[in-house]
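ok trying again, last paste got cut off:
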Amino acid sequence: MTAPASGSSSGAWRAKWRRVRALVLKEAHQVVRDPSSIAIGVVLPVILILLFGYGLSLDVKNVPLAVVIEQATPEAIDLEAGFALSPYFRPRITQAMPPAQLLLLEHRVDGIVRIPADFSRHVSSGDAVLQLIVHGGDANRARIIEGYVQGVVADWSARQSAAGQPGASATVNVQSRLWFNEADNSSYFLVPGLVVLVMTLIGALLTAMVMAREWERGTLEALLVTPVRSEEILLGKTLPYFLLALIGFALCVLASQFLFHVPLRGSLWVLLGASMLYVLVALGIGLLISSWVKNQLVASQLTMLATFMPAFMLSGFLFDLRSMPIVVRLITYALPARYYVALLQSVFLAGDVWTVIVPNTLALAAMAAGLALASRAAMSKSLE
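nice, full thing came through this time. structure:
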């Protein structure tokens, strides 16, 4: 009595996987024949890698700076040489404040360092003062420039002290070190976040557009009236784009290692597992949106608003979440990109920090499971 049931069950499973394989092959052929899918899945990640890696930088270097030397004393000239030799500044020398102020008004320089005429005399007495004026259009950049100027002045003071000049001795020597980013390179910060954008675009946007296109053409309705089950349709639709997203992930990781030399201090397998979870979340979001909105244009716009913009602005990719208002921080807990960014930054720069990896991975797993159930319910075989 049990043997026929077992045979029937195994036959049902074989039939199920034959249908899924047919759907996967059909979808794979469609991906290969569709230029837009290849563009979003392969070409767009390469463009984003090059654009963000080379074009976008948070480093402050070669700052145009006006240096006003009101009296060309040896101390003033030596201080100006410190700015000229620094990789962070491109000084422009003037002898008075009005030309320097005009340069700042025209935003041809980002700051003014004024070395007064009595600078040398006050150096000897130990109470010398410099005036620094910084363009405040970008407050963060202004603070960085201020710190760099203070660093140049501190180096000059140390040289004066080593040469035995009076009034230039330093009382405290601060030795600082940057953890996880010894090179102080913004690529270490930007490239891991770029992986989030690529995974989001491929997983959510591409899936939403493809499913909405199926609804528009009526081909999905034709599938729904066949013996194919809703979960089989989901598997057939998502597996090709899951593999396409992994290709984009591989391109990002290769670029991070060989183009931008971002360290990968954690396990590649942990990184791959977390990325696979996030791809499942992105695919679930795309499927859910396209099940509700059966129009390509509306689905793509809604997907951009629901996934790409939050991943760009509210994930910690560019802006520190702790600096945001409490209401906005609470909203970010509902965004999967927040957890993926934390995982990427930890695995790339700090290593396998399990107190970071475990809770963020569990959050992504819960979101993936919830979206899978919601997508299955939305993809029921009703044609409403």
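cool. The longest strand covers residues 63-69. The domain at 63-162 is CATH 3.40.1710.10 (abc type-2 transporter like fold).
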